[in-house]
Write the structure tokens for this entry.
Amino acid sequence: MDKQKKIVHMFDDIAKSYDVANRVLSFGSDIAWRKRACDLAFGFYDKDEVTQITDVACGTGDMLGFWEKIAQKRGIKVNTYLGIDPSQGMLEVAKEKFPHFSYLQAFAQNLPLEDEVSDFVSITYGIRNVVERQKALDEFARILKPGGILVILEFTKREKQTFMDNVVEFYMKKVLPAVGGFVSGNRAAYEYLPNSIDNFLTTEQLIRELQEAGFAMEYTKAFSFGISTLFIAKKRS
């Protein structure tokens, strides 16, 4: 089994406990991060009607739910909410929670969509798990309309230079695997998380990759002592 398939299998295994683990491990902060991402993204697009919002690596559908809530709050009409994920287990949970959304089972690096069909593409805590990351970024640019918005929430690699960096490091490598393992019954999945962050990019490196893929940065913000970072980028026309 190749690396990408192993990652998908891991998410299949923790799908049913994924939401609970997220809320516990982030102390509920991920809800605020996702809402803020959606709200800011709509501000950068500034249209009253949207053809499609595509959430890649949609997991259990949470981000689609927040897209819908913020769109309704802003009075924005969205014709299609589409969730895409390679994990069948995650999609099954998403369909139970949000049966009114559309879903496809596919990898981020090979999206089964036509060119320039989506106004927004989001991927939350998923780009780090894509082995062929550059192909995925190229796919995001391909399916976005000119001027369309890409939203990424991710745990980026930290420099570990301050006391707080060390506190976060202790939490991620010691506390998180123990708690996540208890909640999900799969400690290995939550040991994978901090290791995958260490092997990922810094904020600056991810920005460079986005620019190379044809995006112009609109907004970058770190939350909760740099644990989570929001990237909002616009596809160049």
